[in-house]
């Protein structure tokens, strides 16, 4: 059965072995409160890299025993990021978590050719799962944080990632919408051409275990009435499980709009 709410993901994760999470520059209240909640749920243990004095102060203000963490004192933001990557490369952690360090600085260390975390030839992207109050199920989308202008190969990888994510939360055959501004196929619009290309790949079983259509606009992806009104036939049926956006800024605005206007809850990871 497909998971409908993010809280159900917690129950799923609790069935697995604990993960060792390394937090780069983990010295802010939001990060520490989030890690404390994960520890209470007993599915992770944490190494916080940051200014030990600040970490202890935040713990004291929130009645948290700092001994539940492994704390590595490194007040410098850049050095904390580099150290976090090193710990994972040394096998001393399973998952990297972003704390107060800027995204740009952390990505610089993740992508370092000699000492980073990238797999040669693989596409790194962010996958987000949104629980939106006025949408009837979880919505998975990419990429709101990582690839500014994904090429066709990266969009294919992103499509496969969202499909894999959907299947892991119990959606046997996800409905995937490749987003453009319109459902019309305009040869001079690269986003429309890429979307049609990926859609045809799915038709030919080069992308498996999903119903993939594109180009589709947001309304036709998630609203059956809009689909009917425009007289469009789509295997997504206005009932998308997953959205693949053409550009980072489009996905990022979508992410933040859901957060602030629709009061959606989010879970995001780089894969």
Shape: globular
Given as residue ranges, the uncertain stretches (5+ residues, pLDDT < 50) are none
If you consult CATH, what is the topology of the largest domain? Isopropylmalate Dehydrogenase
Largest sheet: 6 strands, mixed
Distance between the termini: 24 Å
Give the beta-strand count: 10
Helix content: 40-55%
Query: How many distinct folded domains?
Result: 2
Q: Tell me the name of the CATH class of the largest domain.
A: Alpha Beta
Average pLDDT, all residues = 94
What class would the helix/strand composition place it in? Answer: alpha/beta
Rg from alpha-carbon coordinates: 20 Å
CATH architecture of the largest domain: 3-Layer(aba) Sandwich
Number of helices: 10
What percent of residues are in strands?
Answer: 15-25%
Q: What would you say this structure looks like, in words?
A:
It is a single chain. The chain is an alpha/beta fold and 271 residues long. It has 2 domains: 16-111, Rossmann fold (3-Layer(aba) Sandwich); 126-270, Isopropylmalate Dehydrogenase (3-Layer(aba) Sandwich). The chain is 40% helix and 19% strand. It has 10 helices and 10 strands. The protein has helices at residues 6-14, 29-41, 52-61, 77-89, 103-110, 152-168, 190-203, 218-222, 224-230, 248-260, and strands at 19-24, 44-50, 70-73, 95-98, 126-131, 139-142, 175-179, 211-216, 242-244, 265-270. The protein has a 6-stranded mixed β-sheet with strand order 8-7-9-6-5-10, with helices on both faces. A 4-stranded parallel β-sheet has the order 3-2-1-4, with helices on both faces. It is globular, with a radius of gyration of 20 Å. 38% of the residues are buried. The model has no long low-confidence stretch (mean pLDDT 94).
